[in-house]
Here is the input.
Amino acid sequence: MYSARSNANGSVASPARRASVIVADPYPIMLLGIRKIVEDDPRFQLVAEVLTMPSLREKVTAEIPDVALVDWSMASQDLAATAGLLRSDQATSMVFLTVSEDAHQRREILRLGARCVLSKCASPSELQTAIWRACHGRMPFETSAVDPPAASTDPEYHIRQLTRRERQLIPLVCGGLRNKEIAHQLGIAESTVWHHLTSVFTKLRVEDRLGLAAFAYRHGLVLPAAQPSIALGLSAD
Here is the structure.
């Protein structure tokens, strides 16, 4: 495991060795982004990247890394293999990355033995903190890091995390438009709308479209005059 030493003056010295990390994701572009985040932190060493669960199994067995960062959509397609990795005697902590905001799903992942469930909308520093915590054998957690004190209570903190495109999306969602209609209006792909909406849910700490509408009207992201004339659905499509 990764460890750090204290100097005589009480300051923390350089780590005795870097924590080893494996990344598993079916999308090469995601691997590239995660690789950079891992390699930017001197506490960690990336030892392998894989695209499939069989490859992950082989690498975990051969390398016995401190942490494996695994895309949940890939892992969930082979639950037997995933459960086997989580319940094995290997000293590898599993951190799953997901775009889902389903609370029940996250609890199930943790129940299987995952060290952490982290949103793919998390910041690089949050991912680095998640790896560090997993290396130290911290208790399972659903968020990547402890937010700054004001983060959990100050709506403005969450609102400031929104991108310009995500702000454009909110009035359209609150107006009752579905993803296909929003995609047409903004001139983007429907899948892109879904990713933006997932990011908005994560940043504003809301569960669904109805929760987003309530938050948006309460905090002035949408003017009262723009209230929807149709019922808001709870699905993301």
About this structure: Residues 155-226 form a domain with the Arc Repressor Mutant, subunit A fold (CATH 1.10.10.10). The two ends are 43 Å apart (CA to CA). The longest helix spans residues 190-204.
